[in-house]
Structure formats: structure tokens, C-alpha cells
């Protein structure tokens, strides 16, 4: 997968701009606050239909404008494609090759990306919401079935939680089994897909982490809960866990078991990273996980995703910078930084200097 051209109109601080990307390393450089990350965000938005930085699409619209537009000319293994998004204050329209898609699930898989920034330290340092979000975004890009199951699970979960707040306990206890059967059907898909994802991710992340640390430390990822069997068996396990927690759920007013409560444990050198890893250890582990994610995309789809590295080099020491540049050779990469010459180490790149939402193209 690769992007050939990107067009932005009234997106963030861009009034109107076009980017020409090479198949290899593309470096967007310039002072902070000029729009480098905004460009990277636009690419990720066309891949996933969501931004990693904001919750409401209207925040993507340039101040004073009514609509933001993003268009990418790209290629995947099936051929050329054009993906566009028109973002308004209260709605959006996404099109693939001119045809409007009805739901976000229809966008997944056409163009994929992996995004890494210093903020990805949240993946290890913050609560389980961040780790579930990481898995949801990654798995959804290669499995529309997972994305659909996730949407339906969350909708039913909201309805179940609303029911739990009803004061008519008899009604609640009579109705819960009906909701639980539906909930567990989709929960089993989520649980199974996450388990398969982690089975691939952990060894790959471990290998890349060993490379980045010169074998000095190990990295291992483990789910905090184990589910044995196929989807039908997992469905039965979850049904039993839900019924065993009726009293607790009624007392608290929300659903206390299920994939919306599951977590992933990170172990660096055999120690739980959440409470004990240093900033440097956390940064290297998170980078290894993201690079492993790139390899999983290749395994599952047959082609590499677009790799987005946002202001990563400033957070790494010199040996790890050089190792990273070597690892991304051959991948289409969008790398943002303040000084291009400080991160390339002889690697060829398509360099674009960004100033106040405008591209100043540089010679190679």
C-alpha cells in the first residue's frame, strides 16, 4: 500500500495544499506548529475514518471554513484507488473511487497505516482503555468483521448498562439473559480476534525489541485474561461470567465483565512495565510494538501499510535512530521532524519543508 498524492483543503491549518509522496521515506520537516502532524493525521484519517488526536470531526475544519476536504490517490495490491473525505460540522462523507460508503466498516482495508508518536507511551503507561483502543484500531484495519462486531457489542453494552440502572430489579433480571445472548455473540468474535492478534504481536515485538536494545532486554505481551476454545466455547464462558456477576452489576449499575474490561500486560525483562519501566524503556517497547504491527499487516494483507512516524527521532538516542532508519528501508514512511539532516544518516528521502500550512519542496 502506498499513497501517491494527498490533497488538503481547509483541513486544520492548511488552506489548500498538495503533497507528492515517494514510495520510500518521506520527511516532513520544519519548526513546531507548522502543520507537519496535521498532514500525518489526514493520512491516518483516510485509513481509519478517525483521528488519533480529537474526538469530534468538526475540530478538523480550518477556522473560518465550513468544510474540510482530504483526498488521497493511492495504490494497493488490487490497483489504483482514490479515497476522499468531506468533513462538515455535523456530518461527513467518505468516498472510495467516487462511491460514497454507507458505514465506516466499508473503509477498512483499502488503505492501512500504523501511526507512532511520543504520545504512544500511553499504550504502556496509561490505563487499559489505551491498550484496548490500540488493538481495536489495528485489528479493525485488517478485519471488517471485527470492526462490525465491536460496534454492535458496544451498542448492546450501552443498552445493558442502561437496563442495569432500572429500579425494577425483577424486570432487569428477566431481561438480562436476552441482552447477554446477543452481547456474548459479538464478544466472542472480539476476544478470539484479539487473542490471535496478540499471538502474532508478542513474538514479533520481542524480536524487534531485542534488535533495538542489542539484546539487552526482553519484551513480552500477555492478555490479562485467558479464554480457551473456539468462538462458541468462548461465548459460553462469557455467558457464565455475566450471569455470575448479576448481583455485582446491579449494585454498581454497569457491566463488570467482558472484552470492554480486558487488558494486556507488558513485561520488560520479566517485570510488569506499567509500574516499573523507565521512560526510555517504555519508549523503546512501544516502538517495538508498533513496528511489529507493521509486520502483522504484511502477514495478513500481503502488503505493508503506510508507516507514520511523528516526531519520533527526537525521543530516541543516536544508536536507536540509526537502527530505526535501517528497519524502515523499503517501507513507505511519513516521518515528521524539525531537522531532516539530523535523522536521515545518509538515507535517501523525499524532503518537504512545512511552513505555516504550506509545502516548500527540497531537493534530495
Describe the protein.
This protein has helices at residues 36-48, 122-125, 128-142, 144-164, 169-212, 231-244, 246-252, 273-276, 279-301, 318-327, and strands at residues 2-11, 14-20, 25-29, 67-76, 79-88, 92-96, 99-100, 113-116, 219-223, 264-268, 271-272, 306-310, 333-337, 350-354, 359-361. The chain is α/β, with parallel strands linked by helices and 364 residues long. The protein has two domains: 1-112 and 305-364, Rossmann fold, CATH 3.40.50; 122-301, Glutathione S-transferase Yfyf (Class Pi), Chain A, domain 2 (Up-down Bundle). The strands form three sheets. The chain has a six-stranded antiparallel beta sheet with strand order 2-1-4-5-6-7, with helices on one face. A six-stranded mixed beta sheet has the order 8-12-13-3-14-15, sandwiched between helices. The chain is globular, with a radius of gyration of 22 Å.
